[in-house]
Amino acid sequence: MTTVLSLGGSIVAPIDVLRGVDVPFLKQFAALIEAFLVKDAGRRFIIVTGGGAPARVWQNAYREVSGGASDVFHNDNADRIGIAATRLNAELVRAVFARWVTAPVITDPSAAPLCEGRVLVGCGWKPGFSSDYDAALLAARSGADTVINLSNIAQVYTADPKEDPAARPIEQISWPDFRKIVGSEWVPGKNVPFDPVASAFAEEKGLKVICASGRDLDNVRKILDRGSGNEPFLGTTIG
Question: In CATH, what number is assigned to the domain containing residue 39?
């Protein structure tokens, strides 16, 4: 069984670059994944990392230096900066799982061999979408039917709760309805539960996505254990 995780950079490196990585979270996350690997010899994980604070800080610096002028600021350049940050986080995660990993970080999810090791770690690929798309592509290629999207939000809401006090959490939603919420256009650094380009691909391939808080590791355990323990979990299932 292969489980695909889209691990948001906002929970790996949620704070400014000078203060660094959330080490306590990473230790606990690694212990949780390793517990599943030890318990089930047939279990494999593909973990795709986002960019987090390093991506935001460097992209914002680019915006400030360029002044946001259309002839200077280019989305592709901002995406490449974000991709570099995802690779930094991926190398860290790969090193943390070194005893389970045999392959280099996956930088091209369309072509990478998927048969090596018990854990594979991927990162951003190319401009035009976020690492969510890479996770969805790897799920489709590996035969997984679900992407578990771990970020800093516990559920998808009908609207941004910071802006709309009437926004309410959603437990289950279809792809067409979800895509009405996130739109169809990708903008570097766009703050959505699951990237619009990845959403279109996941719908096309018949994938499910579970959005949940990555920091609530007991809840993550319930999601990873679904099908055996069947404990209820907090999150949003799309598809």
Answer: 3.40.1160.10
For helices 131-142 and 196-205, give the axis angle rounded to 10 degrees.
10
Q: What is the dihedral of CA 101, 103, 104, 107, to 10 degrees?
A: -110
Lowest mean pLDDT among 44-53, 56-65, 126-135, 148-157: 56-65
Taking the alpha carbons of 95, 99, 100, 105 in that order, is the dihedral positive or negative? positive
- What is the pLDDT confidence band of residue 114, given thresholds at 50, 70 and 90? confident
Distance (Å, whole) CA 235 – CA 229? 16
Could you list the residue range(s) of the whole structural domain that residue 135 is in?
Answer: 2-238
For the segment 30-43, what is each residue's pLDDT rounded down to a tens digit? 999 999 999 999 99
- How buried is 117 (Cβ within 10 angstroms: 0-12 exposed, 13-18 middle, 19+ buried)? middle
